Amino acid sequence: MSNECPCGSGLEAAQCCKQYLSGQAEAPTAEALMRARYSAYVFKEIGYLHDTLAPEARENHDEESVREWAETAQWLGLEIHDTWAGRPGDEEGIVEFSAKYAVDGENLTHRERSRFRFEDGKWLYVDGQMVSGPPVRKERKIGRNEPCPCGSGKKYKKCCGR
């Protein structure tokens, strides 16, 4: 069995998320907390998931549902897509991620944009919004053999499409 942390950092779990899950250290950034929360699902550390919620998020926390999801899912990996703020010295941060998992043999992805807040010396999960995937192209796609829109008179594939 690998000692690599399930959060995808490439570090050993003991040097990464396990130090946060055990309470030896606080996650220093919003992204580190996001990674630790994912690892908490993998290691079934349900208490950590509750303890890292902002007070207003605890009101709707259903510990039994969280435990069931953690225990029935096979956790397949975490991908961080982007972060906004959430570094030491910031008061808030946003992390967009995808958590891949399988339930009853079906591979699924939970993609979310999560908000975090730094309060009383630690990062807390505030809430999250589901994200449906990468942005959808709104403009018409230019065909390879169409005239280049730059006005050169060349085909797109021989000009800007190169």
Please explain how this structure is put together:
Helix 2 packs across helix 5 (63-72). Helix content is 24%, strand content 29%. The chain contains five helices and four strands, in the order αααααββββ. By secondary structure, the protein is α+β, with helices and mostly antiparallel strands. It starts with 16 loop residues before the first helix and ends in a 32-residue tail after the last strand. The protein is elongated. The model has no long low-confidence stretch (mean pLDDT 90). Strands 1-2-3-4 form a four-stranded antiparallel beta sheet.
List the helices and strands and how they pair.
Layout (H helix, E strand, L loop, with lengths): L16 H5 L8 H14 L2 H6 L3 H4 L4 H10 L1 E12 L6 E12 L2 E14 L2 E9 L32
Antiparallel strand pairs: 1-2, 2-3, 3-4
Helix pairs in contact: 2-5
